[in-house]
Amino acid sequence: MEKASRNLQILNVLTIVLLVIATALVFFYAPRERVMGDVQRIFYFHVPSAWVGFLAFLVTLVAGIAYLRTGSRGWDRVGYASVEIGLVFTVMTIVSGSIWARPAWNTWWTWDPRLTTYTILALIYVAYMMLRQGVEDPDRRARFAAVYGIVGFISVPITFFSIRWWRTIHPVVIGSSSPTAEGGFDMTSPMRLVFFFSLFTFTVLYFCFLANRLRLERLAERVEQLKARWLSA
Amino acid sequence: MSVASSQTEPDVANIAPRKQSLSDYWLLFTDYWRTVGAVLWKDFTAELRSKELLSSMLVFSLLVVLIFNFALELDRAARENVAAGVLWVTAIFAGTLGLNRSLSMEKDRGSLDGLLLAPVDRSALYFGKALGNLLFMLLVQAVILPVFSILFNLPLIKPLMLVVVLLGTVGYASVGTLLASMAVHSRARDVMLPILLFPVAVPVLVAAVRASSAILVAAAWEEISPWFNLLIGYDVIFVAVAYMVFDYVVEE
Amino acid sequence: MIETRALTKNFGLKPVLRGVDLDVAPGEFVVLFGPNGAGKTTLLRILATLSKPSFGRAAVAGFPLPAGAGEVRRRLGVVSHHTLIYGDLTAEENLRFYARMYGVPSPGKRIAEVLRQVGLSARRRDLARTFSRGMQQRLAIGRAVLHDPEVMLFDEPYTGLDQDASAMLDGVLREVAARGRTVLMTTHDLARGLAVADRVLILSRGVVAFSAKAREVELGEFARVYDEMVRQ
Fold first, then answer.
1. Among A86-90, A220-224, B142-146, B150-154, whose mean pLDDT is lowest?
2. How far is CA C12 from CA A128, A228, B109, C222, in A?
3. Among residues 168-207 of chain A, which lie with CB inside 8 Å of chain B?
4. CA B225 – CA B203 distance, rounded (Å)
5. Which pLDDT score, from 0 to 100, does residue B81 have?
6. How many contacts (CB atoms, under 8 Å) link B and C?
């Protein structure tokens, strides 16, 4: 089996180190939040997850446009890998948000604009995967996926605004629905440090996953090629 | 689309290149819209004969309204709140039906190839198809709206309401035609279109329902106009995106 | 008129055309034989601008593919085993639609002329879905020659036709379609294909494995050569 390249190995180790440091910072260095208590620490994982979910979608958009213009399969692989990773982080975001909301606001779910839009984002991801699964011809699959990635990405900001306007023009009757998922707290500077470090770590984690996933995909394709050659010989 | 068809030898044209005059642009323009018109006319004529699409969309819409009637216990006040929502959910489901059938009929008969073989701009094919779908959806709405007014006992036929229906349906039909063109090639074809379309069509739903509700209770213009703007923005953006991207969907 | 060099087409990892070299001179009638899966339809689709080659070159009527696809389409008439006819429209309406799509000048006259040539004038106001398969194929040929193309591609036009219909199609092919035009046709029917062709080719496993002038080939021997190739 082909060994991972040197750079990839370094990236893997670096990511693990960053994760360990980030976790330590979150649990030991970051101060205890006044109102919500320790549960607020989820914030340091929740928001970076949300960011990665969005970043992954952005990468898919760029990869989609690049694929349509160049026709090079590499871009399709990037788009596909990115959606897979993005979906995982999106689900993590929603779950961690839900876990946080329960003790903080006494509810598992709110229909606030950010959360609702984010869920729709997750559904678009899932639709992307299902579209890929349903199309047999690889070239067509890649083209369709690229197009849907573009259409989906453009729809997300519009969706966000439409839901936000809906919420402000007709304010929600129920109590615990602040439109800011982080809750209303100000960050002191140690909190800011931990937050940005966590954000950075998660971004590196994303690229680490992406690189590994791409390597996996390349190896899988090699296997398919060898199989095809062997069977038709 | 080349205008060199009016010249006999392509090589001669290379020696003395013609400047594209106004009449050339006009020719391209009319050619393009002639194609759009031809596709539209074809769909319309065929549909008038078989009435397959319209009848199924219509019957389906009426059934959905009926089901909502049983599913939601509606007293007078509730009916007012919910009418806009029920109207648009019905429109969306029936629209999906129409989009699916309109494009799968082309694909199954292989006539998609017939369209692609013609020396026409791919985007003209898109506009022809999308306009056809739009027309069918509007025709169904033209029947459903009065029926709705009667069943829900609400004044739905107002000019502003008709504008909302138009804008919302344009947005839905344009994205729907693009995505249906893809869904039709996939395995779980009937279910694929809603899965692809609904998440992306949420802004249309939200804006259309909010605007319709506001119009029903005769709210102030300031409450209605942001939704109009959203619908117009959505329509413009996605028609432009579909125009740019349709080539890649149909070419192999 | 039609030429390909090392034309290759892969569907994902699966190679279908593995370097096809083809030359069809202007006015020539070439018939391409080959077993299922040899790539005949794929080759025709590429020449018809419906599909893009993975590697290699192709050109029709002097225009390269896929770059000059727009120009090629104008000069191309295609009859495939899908009829591309709309069942809910009459014969006349079908032709009118395609006349508009191809920008045919004085469509009314041209449509009447074409209907006469394919022998469907009497049925022109009838819905196409009431036509027999043979009549549908004739209408399809009418559709294909409407814009007076220089090049014709036929993909297994005899599929689903009985003896009488096939014979009638032969006639229409010779008079209407083939006259003065360059034709590339694929078929399974060895006898028929040999009878109408100027030159015959066999496509096997993605390459042209055999090429000869039709006059110089005798049916029985040809059938044997074909069987051998198919069995390999």
1. B150-154
2. 20, 11, 25, 34
3. 169-170
4. 15
5. 77
6. 77
> Mind telling me how many Å the CA of A122 is from chain B's nearest CA?
9
CA distance B179 to B182: 5
- pLDDT of amino acid A123: 94
Residue C18 covered by a domain:
yes
Domain CATH for C39? 3.40.50.300
pLDDT (tens digit per residue) in A112-171: 788 888 899 999 999 999 999 999 888 899 999 999 999 999 999 898 888 888 776 544
Q: pLDDT (tens digit, 9 = 90+) per residue, B190-217?
A: 899 999 999 999 999 999 999 998 888 8
What pLDDT score was predicted for residue A87? 94
- Look at residue B25 and tell me whether its pLDDT is greater than 60: yes
Question: Which residue reads 């349903």 in tokens?
Answer: A134
> Does C13 sit within 8 Å of A224, measured CB to CB?
yes
CB B220 within 8 A of CB B151: no
Helices (H), chain C: 40-47, 69-74, 91-102, 107-117, 133-145, 163-172, 190-196, 219-231
Best B174, B237, B248 member to test A by mutation, with max A CBs in 10 Å, is B248
Averaged pLDDT for residues B91-108: 89
Bridge partners (DSSP) listed for residue B122 = none
Report whether A22 contacts A198 (CB < 8 A): yes
Contact A140 B175 (CB under 8 A): no
The size of the A-B interface in CB pairs under 8 A is 95
Q: How far is CA C110 from the centre of its chain?
A: 21
The total number of structural domains in chain A stands at: 1
Nearest to A151 among B183, B200, B226 (CB): B200
- Which residues of chain C lie closer than 8 angstroms to B2, CB-CB? 70-71
C36 to chain A, minimum CA–CA distance in Å? 16
Report the number of distinct structural domains present in chain C: 2
pLDDT tops 60 at residue B120: yes
A220 falls within a domain: yes
- Same-domain status, C70 and C103: no
| Residue A176 within a domain | no
pLDDT at B18: 57
Contacting chains of C (3 CB pairs or more, <8 Å) are A, B
Domain boundaries, position C11: 1-75+151-158+181-232
Confidence of residue B170 (pLDDT cuts 50, 70, 90): very high
> Would you say residue C174 lies in a domain?
no
Whether residue A145 is contained in a domain is answered as yes
Same domain, C3 and C46: yes
In the chain, the amino acid numbered C18 is R
Q: Would you say residue C176 lies in a domain?
A: no
Round to whole Å and give the CA distance between B60 and B94: 6
User: What count of other Cβ atoms lies within 10 Å of the Cβ of residue B70?
Assistant: 7
Examine the pLDDT at B41 and tell me if it is beyond 90.
Answer: yes
Q: Which of B182, B188, B202 sits opposite A162 (nearest CB)?
A: B202
**What does R_g of chain B's alpha carbons equal in angstroms?**
21
Residue C12 near chain A (CB below 8 Å): yes
Say what the alpha-carbon torsion angle A196, A197, A201, A203 is, to the nearest 10 degrees.
20
Query: Quick one: C29 and C87 in the same domain?
Result: no
Report the candidate in B2, B3, B1 with the shortest Cα–Cα distance to residue B124: B1
CB pair distance less than 8 Å for B41 and C49? no
Q: What average pLDDT does this structure show over A175-180?
A: 39
Sheet holding C207-213: strands in order across? Answer: C76-79, C151-155, C182-186, C29-33, C199-204, C207-213
Closest CA to A115 of A93, A89, A99, A83: A93
